[in-house]
Structures are given as structure tokens and as C-alpha cells.
Amino acid sequence: MTKYSFLITGASSGLGLQIATEALKGGHSVVATARDPAAAAQSHPEIESLGGSWVQLDVTRPDTKDRVAEIVKEKGVNVLVNNAGYGLLGSLEDISEEEFITQIDTNLFGTMRCIKGALPHLRSLGGLDSGATIVNIGSIVNLAAFPACTAYSASKMGVEALTETLALEVGTAGIRVVLIDLGIFRTSFLHSFKKPEAGMAEAYSGGAVDATVNFLADLAGKQPGDPVQAARRIVEIVDRTGDHPLTRDLADKGVGKYLRVPLGSDSFGSFAAKIDSLNEVKSSSVFEALAKSTDFAP
């Protein structure tokens, strides 16, 4: 089996920590990043005991690109997992412009900075046989809209669009790009959701925004998704091991076959519903006639 070298952002908790653990158990090398690597190493000694290492990285810093470029070259990284991020929960009206910008800066611009830092090294590895891979962690909000998730959805939809276009730009260089549309998994993510400093305006009390906030608060600790299984699947998608049908399909059809991978039954359900909605428009003669009516006459 080919051994890979992972750089995983936001690895001090949640899915990032689980991906690091599963990759190390699979015999791969891992550089796990955290804003405070000393605290992360103390809280999660299993990473170093399994052979991994911690490095300091804050994806919101302007020197992120240079820092990532240094790490991937020094450590011989061929797999970048962009996992760092957080959620801001509240109505668009209640979220300040500064809070909205910070959400985008972390989730979208942070991903962009890491990719820009890693690309020159990944390109130098020489094609698909090198295992050069970028994994971006998306979200179920890419597939279904949820009240109170305006800023978070905007950041993750940005990651989705970036990923789709990036795959076209770097695929010819033999760099594989994968988007994981993640459902709701039992991590600390819901416990760490941020809310607008302004609180909730009276206009939203008792409405859809309020209901979503309460639903997610009640769901914390009872999420349907198992993060260990999600991490295992992500590692298998990268290294094409294991006995899962998708892994075999990747091996048979080539690593570039799939761009988007939904994980979680809730994510797959939203994925299917989105396709049905788009197919309804596609099959509608009314929509087709309306669209074509805006072209210049032949």
C-alpha cells in the first residue's frame, strides 16, 4: 500500500482529530495543525504516540500561505486536508458585518491560503501517481438551506465553488481534488457554534431562526453521524484501501472519478433532494422556454 503524508488543518478537535488518528493508524504520516499545538499535544497525546507531529497554524493569518509552503516541502506532504473552520449561528440581520467577514475569512479564505501555499509543492510531485490530493471539508448546508446559517452557508458554498473550479485548474497537473459534503456528526462542532454578539432580534423570536438554533442546541451530543467512521472513509478515499464499494470503485475507475462525496445519511438525503429539485427544473418545458427566450434571435 502506498504511504501518504497528510497535512490536516484544525486537527485539535472534532473531525480533524479523527482524520489524523485514522491516517496514522493506517500507516500514513501526519502533520496535525492547531493554533496552540502545545495544548493540543497535551490534550491528545495519541497523535504523537502514533507517530504524528503537531505544528502551529492559524489559517486567518496573512502568512498562512508561506507557512504552509514551508511545512509541505519540509515534511514531504502530498495530501492537504482543509478542515479548519467554525460555525456562526444567527440571522443575517443580527450578524454584524465584522462577524460575517470573520466567518468567511476563516472558512473560505483560510482554505484558499492553505491551498495556495501547498500547490507549488504538490505540482512538483509529478502527477496522480504521486498521490497529490487536496481534500476540502464542505457541509450539508451546500445541499440544503437552513435558517440561522446564512454566514456559515455562504462560507461553505464558497468552499464548494472554489473546489469545483480548482479541480479543473489543477487536474491536468495530476492533483486530485475532493469535496466532502459533511452531514451532522457527533463532534464538538455544535457545542462551539458562535452566535451574533447582538443576540436575536425580537422579529426572529419564535420563528424559523429561533427554531433552528433550538433544534441544533438540543441535537448536540445526539448527532446521527459517527466521526470515526467519517474519518475512516475520508482516509480510504485518499489511499483507496479498505473494502468499501466506493473505495473499489475509485480503484477501478480512477482517483479523479468523483469530486463530491456526501458523508452521513442526512447529507445523502439532502444530496438526493437537491438533484430531484434541479431535475424538476431541467424537465420543465416552461423553464426551458423562459431560459431560451433571453437569447438573441438566430
Question: What topology does this entry show?
Answer:
Elements: E1 5-8, H1 14-25, E2 29-34, H2 37-43, H3 46-49, E3 53-56, H4 64-75, E4 79-82, H5 97-124, E5 133-137, H6 150-170, E6 176-182, H7 208-219, H8 227-239, H9 245-253, E7 260-263, H10 265-282, H11 285-292
Parallel strand pairs: 1-2, 1-4, 2-3, 4-5, 5-6, 6-7
Helix pairs in contact: 1-8, 4-5, 5-6
Mean pLDDT over all positions = 87
CATH superfamily: NAD(P)-binding Rossmann-like Domain
Low-confidence stretches: none
SSE string, helices as H and strands as E: EHEHHEHEHEHEHHHEHH
Strand order of the largest sheet: 3-2-1-4-5-6-7
Please give the alpha-carbon distance between the first and last residues: 57 Å
Supply the CATH class. Alpha Beta
Structural class: alpha/beta
